[in-house]
């Protein structure tokens, strides 16, 4: 097998495409022939030693992937060779083969292409857990999605619309806003025109008739957090999803008091570990939504697995709409 090996987590340039022994699965594991793997923001942080999970060295990055089961280890009963699955295990995806925990593999129904499957679990599980579980989103409510043209943002738009909500999508260009509108967003905000330090708050107020959004979905953080939170409706829920802009913001807690609002943390990874039955039910629901055409990953482009460095550079340029996927 071949894989991108991280022996020194000092950045993308240190990754090496290497030939490695093809491993045999241990107890509770399966060996997958990887068909596709998607690039997520944590995949960039982990090779820079900036992610909260720090795997032992050396490791193969690539948190999310889809492929075909080649072999199963002891105790694996629900999967068999030849079966197609998707998996989000944190590492291992950027190669031709990997060992995956069988318990984390999602069996794929017929008609679920590998490229879509490799781009599915993280963004839809995060967004569904955030909106439907943590925010308890109801039909008729208004959701403001920041970073709306990215992976989790596009997923959030689709899930919120399927739930009957009104969606305001904020993104950084007219092209990205047009994408959000094509996914069902009812209104868009281009924050190069209505910036977080300028007119963002006024534009949110205008688009909500002064009421503010019931739910703010924020995977961006930084300067966007405070104006968005100041705009929130009475009893609003502010979802802390991530910090793609870099800085972790500090919010004045008196704002939560004045708005009767909640600041709600979203950590899907730990939810999946602590509440596995609830997570399994959620993933079944999402697979059903995919089958009905209610959700479908937005794929910016696919590249050969050998072009991983190029994919990282594209992600770093912040030009990506939806997801980048690498294919074997």
UniProtKB/TrEMBL annotation:
Name the CDD domains on file. Answer: QOR1 (cd08241)
- PROSITE patterns this protein is in? QOR_ZETA_CRYSTAL (PS01162)
Region forming the signal peptide: none
Q: Name one GO molecular function term.
A: zinc ion binding
Domain Enoyl reductase (ER), by residue range, is 11-326
Give the protein's recorded name: NADPH:quinone oxidoreductase family protein
Q: What organism is listed for this UniProt entry?
A: Hydrogenophaga borbori
